[in-house]
Write a structure and sequence with these properties.
Length: 205
Amino acid sequence: MVEHIPPEGRRSIDLTGLGAAFGAESPARQPAIVEGDPAQLVEGDPVMAGGSGLPPARFEFVAHAEVHLGQPAEVGPVIGGRRRVIPITGGRIQGPRLRGAVLAGGADWQLVAPDGTAVIDTRYMIRTEAGPVVSIATRGFRHGPPDVLARLAAGEEIAPSDYYFRVAAALESGDPSLTWVNRTLFFAVAARQAASVSYDLYALA
């Protein structure tokens, strides 16, 4: 039997800010209610109290990117969905830790699942303002309501908050001044436009 916990013994945890930190609405529109004695649940629980001994996750803004796209080449139905290759024709990345031009020649080897989810799989290069080249590979997902995805496919400008578009990114460079990119985890919050993709790149500290 579950013991009834009176209101004064409940702890309210507001989760709505978590999604906002990543540019998306949180599914928790109302505060989550954890039943039990707050002192026991929080102070005695290393997960709830943040007392696991591990450092908290932190991330740092690296740069904003605008990546220009060419016309997709449709490979067609393959195992897992429909393959399409979208050329990357140029663009720009600029921010406090990385600035340069997106080089033509890369592509997104995108797989569109039966439910409309786009599995992002890109490889391209950036030539920094100082000269060295950085390679970047991303892997992630874009999904949303069917009507929103249809409007995106038609080239309409859709608010990024109306769909999910997130990628993990791996950066590489052989230049000594950019050694830090080889050993840092990155992620990006992205948006799709008619002929481009834009994203904010973050480093996990």
